[in-house]
Amino acid sequence: MSKPASSHPRKLPRDAGESSVPPVAIALLLGIALLAGAQVYTLLQLDEFREDVGSRLDTHDERLALLDGNVARTSSELESRVGEVRSLVESTEEELATRTREVESRVLGETKTLQKEIEDARETSQAKITEVGGKLAEYQETTITEVGALGGRVDTVKQEVEANRAELEKTIAALTSVKGDLGVQSGLIATNAGELDALKRLGERNYYEFNLAKTKRPQRVGPVSIKLSGTDRKRNRYSIELWADDKRIVKRRKTLLEPVQFYVQGARVPYELVVNQIDNGNIGGYLATPKDGPRGS
To answer: Which pTM was predicted?
Structure first.
């Protein structure tokens, strides 16, 4: 009995023309292809870089050429400026030398002129010194003569002073001192103008002369005001009113040469009024005030 046919298909054999390639070979081929592409890209980049570098070198050469031109032009301008400065310096030096010669010449001329003036002044001064010396000698002689004469006059003045002093002392000695109407011992009493002048020269008091007529209003005498009320020529008497420190003081029936005394504020000794002349309706005399008392204007 024959065997039944199998149900599974049967593998057919590969065609005799197909070749079998391993995967490793394929991968190797792909790597080689990629490497070749990378090399081609690299070469293209190198060409582009070479062109860019060449372009930049050309630009750099152009800039160098331009810079060389600028340097050459600047050097030319600098040389021109240097030439101008050198010319200006030479011109200035020449002008300075000329000015220096002019100044030296002028100074020399002025120096000679000044020297001449100094010599003339010296000669003039010497002449004046000689003249002054002569005048000085003459003046000395005159002065000696005048001093001698002055010495004589001084001696004469001394003698006159001594005589006046002796006369003053004699006059003062002749004056009298009596008690006033307030009972206070008075100073020396002057009976006339000469004796009053002697008292003034003695300088112990202030003296104010007066000559009063009978009037309605008081008259100013030194620091006080005096009004003559009346006179009695036969009895040599008079009456007055006086104002001192805004106070009214009445002195009635006072006699010739009687010291009429009154006090004022600030004075330690009394003021004294002496009448040494009495006429009808008129009296004359002086007011004596202490040196430490108030003064009249």
So the answer is: 0.45
